């Protein structure tokens, strides 16, 4: 079992770089897909990019989505509603987590074959990992 | 007049024109306390709504609003995309497959839109958001509809109430979105989301007058 990870940021570069960082720390077994910016490359959020990233990240074991803020969160929530309305899509959970730290935590745990609940839970626990 | 497919389409068309005409003002409001893209985002979103309506050729007013909402969600690019998109889709679903509705049904659809925005964004009245224009507008619309008033009268009252709600956002401190980071410095400006909501409701009043 390997849960997929999707990273939603207003910035294509932030989403891509955090995906690269988390992938480096988690290893090649986890699929991490960035969904940054709008569909024409501006800062913002695109429900179509997020949906495509979710589809690409899912291997049948579900997808954990992390968002930076604002429209990233609202657009991801809207996608979840759409998937529930349509039915039959991948199992997707949003993690209420700090973006970079949560992505690394989720990716590392996903690489050990834990299920979606555990991956989302670990991402959310990243809030309590003090640095100083 | 009843609210049918043609009226619903005329509403979105008028809303798009109003937002385009006021794009610079909306962006200016957003530049003061937000990220300065609200005018462009709303213009792009409502333009996508019209494109989607043209492609889907909906045959009920409910389907018109659902099609508009899907276009807005897909192309707006900012937080107003999922908020307005969910609002129009939820309003459209509330209308069901009726070919034409009267004021009470349209009032219930507007209330469904308000509920969608509250649920998705987690904001309430007084947070300096679009809800500060929409909530009093829905209440005004429904009060007239409950008295048996026609859509034209209810929509005009809703637009007036939205304008008052918009003006009342000036002294408020933002509690949602980018503006909330500014704390007390968000006071003294109209909320751009409340401004675009007012334009959209004025467009409804104009096409139903």
UniProtKB/TrEMBL annotation, chain A:
One of its GO terms (cellular component) is membrane. Keywords: Transferase. One of its GO terms (biological process) is phosphoenolpyruvate-dependent sugar phosphotransferase system. It comes from the Bacteria. Its EC number is 2.7.1.121. Residues 2-132 form the PTS EIIA type-4 domain. GO terms for molecular function: phosphoenolpyruvate-glycerone phosphotransferase activity. Gene3D superfamilies: Phosphotransferase system, mannose-type IIA component. It catalyses: dihydroxyacetone + phosphoenolpyruvate = dihydroxyacetone phosphate + pyruvate. InterPro entries: DhaM (IPR039643), DhaM_N (IPR012844), PTS_EIIA_man-typ (IPR004701), PTS_EIIA_man-typ_sf (IPR036662). It holds the Pfam family EIIA-man. NCBIfam families: dha_pts. Homodimer. The dihydroxyacetone kinase complex is composed of a homodimer of DhaM, a homodimer of DhaK and the subunit DhaL. Component of the dihydroxyacetone kinase complex, which is responsible for the phosphoenolpyruvate (PEP)-dependent phosphorylation of dihydroxyacetone. DhaM serves as the phosphoryl donor. Is phosphorylated by phosphoenolpyruvate in an EI- and HPr-dependent reaction, and a phosphorelay system on histidine residues finally leads to phosphoryl transfer to DhaL and dihydroxyacetone. This is phosphoenolpyruvate--glycerone phosphotransferase. The lineage of its organism: Bacteria, Bacillati, Actinomycetota, Actinomycetes, Jiangellales.
UniProtKB/TrEMBL annotation, chain B:
The keyword Ion transport does not apply. InterPro entries: DhaK_L_YcgS, DhaL_dom, DhaL_dom_sf, Dihydroxyacetone_Kinase. Residues 6-206 form the DhaL domain. GO terms for molecular function: glycerone kinase activity. GO terms for cellular component: cytosol. Keywords: Kinase, Transferase. GO terms for biological process: glycerol catabolic process. NCBIfam families: dha_L_ycgS. This is Dihydroxyacetone kinase subunit L.
């Amino acid at each position: 079992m390997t849960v997929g990870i999707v990273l939603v940021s207003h910035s294509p570069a932030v989403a891509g770089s955090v995906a690269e960082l988390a992938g480096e720390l988690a290893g090649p077994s986890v699929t991490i897909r960035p969904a940054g910016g709008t569909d024409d490359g501006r800062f913002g959020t695109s429900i179509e990019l997020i949906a495509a990233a979710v589809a690409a990240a899912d291997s049948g074991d579900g997808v954990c989505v992390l968002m930076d803020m604002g429209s990233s969160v609202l657009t991801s929530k809207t996608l979840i509603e759409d998937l529930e309305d349509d039915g039959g899509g991948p199992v997707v959970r949003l993690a209420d987590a700090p973006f970079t730290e949560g992505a690394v935590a989720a990716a590392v745990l996903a690489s050990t074959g834990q299920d979606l609940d555990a991956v989302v839970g670990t991402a959310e626990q990243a809030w309590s990992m003090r640095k100083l | 007049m009843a609210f049918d497919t043609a009226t619903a389409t005329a509403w979105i068309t008028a809303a798009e024109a109003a937002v385009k005409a006021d794009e610079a003002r909306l962006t200016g409001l957003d530049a003061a306390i937000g990220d300065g893209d609200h005018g462009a985002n709303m213009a792009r979103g409502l333009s996508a709504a019209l494109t989607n309506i043209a492609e889907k050729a909906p045959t009920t007013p409910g389907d018109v609003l659902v099609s508009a909402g899907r276009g807005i969600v897909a192309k707006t690019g900012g937080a107003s995309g999922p908020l307005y998109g969910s609002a129009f889709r939820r309003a459209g679903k509330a209308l069901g497959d009726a070919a034409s509705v009267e004021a009470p049904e349209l009032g219930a659809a507007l209330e469904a839109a308000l509920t969608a925005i509250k649920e998705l964004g987690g904001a309430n009245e007084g947070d300096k958001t679009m809800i500060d224009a929409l909530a009093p507008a829905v209440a005004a619309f429904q009060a007239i509809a409950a008295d048996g008033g026609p859509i034209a009268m209810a929509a005009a009252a809703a637009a007036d109430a939205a304008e008052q709600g918009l003006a009342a956002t000036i002294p408020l401190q933002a509690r949602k979105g980018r503006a909330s980071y500014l704390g007390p410095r968000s006071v003294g400006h109209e909320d751009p989301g409340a401004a675009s909501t007012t334009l959209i409701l004025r467009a409804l009043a104009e096409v139903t007058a």
